[in-house]
Amino acid sequence: MTTETNDVSRKDWDTYFMDIAYMVATRSRCNRRHVGAVLVQGKKLLGTAYNGAPMGVEDCLEAGCMIVEEYELSAVEGTERMIKKERCIRTIHAEQNLLLFTDRIDREGSTVYVTDQPCWTCANMLANSGVREIVFHRPYPKDSDKVALLMQRKGIVFRRIDPYEAPAQTSRAVVL
């Protein structure tokens, strides 16, 4: 979706929509990570979402995170080893909220801009959502390789914006 412009004061479309995703992320009340996502069809913004507890339920700032530990067998340089993952199960991810609050018809052939590379669960959901492209900024190394492979198999364009600088006061430090 990147389009060049002769006007140096005007942002390209990727930067514009990623900036919006970062602004949306400021609504998150997650202690660990602020994530925002936007759904775009052509140059039309169709929906926004951020990570957080279900509506009407205490969030992580009020009730604390609900951390669970998971272990995954992973092959690293030909050697299998167990990888420990911790995640909060109180929070609905931004991508999941985006899918919950947008219509399938709007997602067909659209692009999702998300501040962070989707986790495995969100990638699976996006793979079945009808989107044709996922653009992210911050990598998520825990699931990176298998998510990229899934997107390749599904024929979904999957790319990282780099270089990119998030708008001031929107980039929350990541605690993994």
Automatic annotation (TrEMBL):
GO terms for molecular function: dCMP deaminase activity; zinc ion binding. Residues 12-158 form the CMP/dCMP-type deaminase domain. Keywords: Hydrolase, Metal-binding, Zinc. GO terms for cellular component: cytoplasm. Coiled coil: none annotated. Zn(2+) binds at residues 93, 119, 122. SUPFAM superfamilies: Cytidine deaminase-like (SSF53927). InterPro entries: APOBEC/CMP_deaminase_Zn-bd (IPR016192), CMP_dCMP_dom (IPR002125), Cytidine_deaminase-like (IPR016193), dCMP_deaminase (IPR016473), dCMP_deaminase-rel (IPR015517), Deoxycytidylate_deaminase_dom (IPR035105). The keyword Zinc applies. Its cofactor is Zn(2+). The active site is at residue 95. GO terms for biological process: pyrimidine nucleotide metabolic process. Belongs to the cytidine and deoxycytidylate deaminase family. PANTHER family: DEOXYCYTIDYLATE DEAMINASE, DEOXYCYTIDYLATE DEAMINASE-RELATED. This is CMP/dCMP deaminase zinc-binding. It comes from Paenibacillus curdlanolyticus YK9. The lineage of its organism: Bacteria, Bacillati, Bacillota, Bacilli, Bacillales.
